Each structure stands twice: as structure tokens, then as C-alpha cells.
Amino acid sequence: IGNKIALFEEDVAELYDFVIDMESFKGDLCYVFRIVPRTNLTAGEKDKVVINEMTTWFNTATWEIVARNYDLSYKAGVYDFDVHMEVEMTKFEDLVVPKVLRYNGTWDVVLKKRERGAFTATLFDFTK
């Protein structure tokens, strides 16, 4: 993929719109930072897009990440993938750690059978 996911590098950032808003997430008011591809991309620019959407919810009081969703896809000559991930965070002592991971994706590499995966993982009982 090279640097196609380096969203804050100038040549990659110009492919995306960056949107800041506020909305409720599980009953808590959050700042929301959403990154989506620009709607007016040329065909050549669309070929450079890997992140279809990335949304991050931040706690308005602490700025800690509450959750993040990723929607990624890419088609290259020898491989392709289409993956969606949702990550909910929680506090453990002074750390922000993943609490729930949801994954649904498919990927393929030439000469290999397509692979699909879907799971939800709940993480708990952290120790330091």
C-alpha cells in the first residue's frame, strides 16, 4: 500500500475531506473527527484511496478516544481487500485500551483462495 494511508502527508491528505462535528456516542457527547475521500476525485486519484472512511469519537472533557471505525478497501494487481473494523475503548487505570473489537473483512492474494473473516472480541480483565 506504500504511503497511501499516511493521511496527514500532503499528497495523501489532498485526496480526503476532514470533518469535525459533535454527536452522541452511547449517550455521551463527543467530538467526532471523520475522514472521507473527496467526492470530486478523478479516476486516477480514486486508485490511490485506501481509507473509505475513518471516524473517531473523542470524549469532550478529556479528549481521550472513545471509539474509532475504519472502512478500508483497495484493489491492486496481485491483491485486494475490503475490511471494516469498529473499536470501542475503555479506561484501565491510566491507560485507554480497546474494550470491544468488531471485524468484518475479505482479502485475496493471487494464487491463493479468497479469505473472509468476521468476529467480535470483548477484552477484559486487564492487568498491568
Portion in beta strands: over 45%
Rounded average pLDDT: 94
How much helical structure, as a percent, in the residues?
A: under 10%
The residue ranges in which pLDDT falls below 50 over 5 or more consecutive positions are none
Order of helices and strands: HEEHEEEEE
How would a crystallographer describe the biggest sheet?
Answer: 7 strands, antiparallel
Strand line-up of the largest beta sheet: 1-2-3-4-5-6-7
Tell me the overall shape. Answer: globular
| Tally of DSSP β-strands | 7
- In angstroms, what is the radius of gyration? 17 Å
Structural class: mainly beta
Q: How many angstroms does the end-to-end distance come to?
A: 35 Å
The total count of helices amounts to 2
Protein model, in words:
Strand 6 (about 95-110) and strand 7 form a beta hairpin. The relative contact order is 0.13. The mean pLDDT is about 95. The termini are far apart. The protein has 2 helices and 7 strands; from the N terminus they run αββαβββββ. A 7-stranded antiparallel β-sheet has the order 1-2-3-4-5-6-7, with no helix packed on it. Helices cover about 5% and strands about 60% of the residues. It has helices at about 10-15, 45, and strands at about 15-25, 30-35, 50-60, 65-75, 80-90, 95-110, 115-120. It is globular and about 45 Å long. The chain is mainly beta.
Key features of this structure:
128 residues, mainly beta, 7-stranded antiparallel beta sheet
Topology diagram in text:
Blueprint: H1 10-13, E1 16-25, E2 28-37, H2 43-46, E3 51-59, E4 65-75, E5 79-92, E6 95-109, E7 115-122
Antiparallel strand pairs: 1-2, 2-3, 3-4, 4-5, 5-6, 6-7
